[in-house]
Amino acid sequence: MESFGARLHRTVAERGPLCVGIDPHPALLARWGLSDDADGLERFARTVVEALGDRIAVVKPQSAFFERFGARGVGILESTIRQLRDAGSLVLLDVKRGDIGSTVSAYASAYLDPSSPLYVDAVTASPYLGVGSLAPMFELAAAHGGGVFVLALTSNPEGAAVQRAVTADGRTVAQTVIDEISQLNRGAEPLGSFGLVVGATIGDTGHDLSAVNGPLLAPGLGAQGGTAAGLRTVFGSSLPSVLPSYSREVLQAGPDLAALRDAADRALADCRAALTTAD
Ligand SMILES: O=c1ccn([C@@H]2O[C@H](COP(=O)(O)O)[C@@H](O)[C@H]2O)c(=O)[nH]1
Q1: Ligand 1 pocket residue status of 25, Cβ below 6 Å
Q2: What is the pLDDT of residue 176?
Q3: Residue 42, ligand 1, Cβ within 6 A
Q4: Which pTM value belongs to this model?
Q5: Which of 59, 218, 253, 265 has the largest count of CB atoms under 10 Å?
């Protein structure tokens, strides 16, 4: 079985270093001329799959925008996941789950067990009940070739107060998360399956990411003010592990398929240039 890290490494080599989010904000539904209901959601998601599913390495549905419409919204999420996988994209479900370990087991079954209707390639997870509480997700991911991206230094300004708080041993909360994920990825080749979320908006992280050996998801590009050119400042020598992520910046080009593809191509070109520029 190929690990998530290996699949990600291969898919990024084939399609380029880009993740595009499916975030059907009410304002975007309106901009696309769609109704703010499950029908509008379905049309929106289908259009993104049709435009980008066969060309983007990773597509990241934001679960909240599907859950907003209850059972039908979750049903649309299920079929969107299936369609993306059929089109060859890796699906990273942005759900930021976290709880006590026994409940995390249920989340792991929901997203990382291949027999689940919501089975995806990887999920986002919140470590604020302790990184160790996420162990059932790490175990099921490892067993089935899945991945988990754990929040470390998020793109929102409110995150810093918690994530940069200093623990009893002198490390920040974020550095303890980084170190635990680095441990899980030790020795993995070509890339570990456990990633971190580090916002593209935060400037120099001031943290040591050198031992992570896993993907660094960088949301916050475009609508939140982060730029591809700024990724070098944020990530320094860890730049080769970065998976840049855009949602609204690309989605606002829709619903025209060619315009969506052009917006994604522009984002990819900017990211390629930023990730490969020599020091
Ligand atoms: O630190 C984080 C973690 C996750 N996100 C999510 O990414 C997208 C960003 O959307 P944009 O439209 O590109 O701003 C969204 O789903 C967030 O929940 C993040 O922004 N920052």
Answers
A1: no
A2: 98
A3: no
A4: 0.98
A5: 218
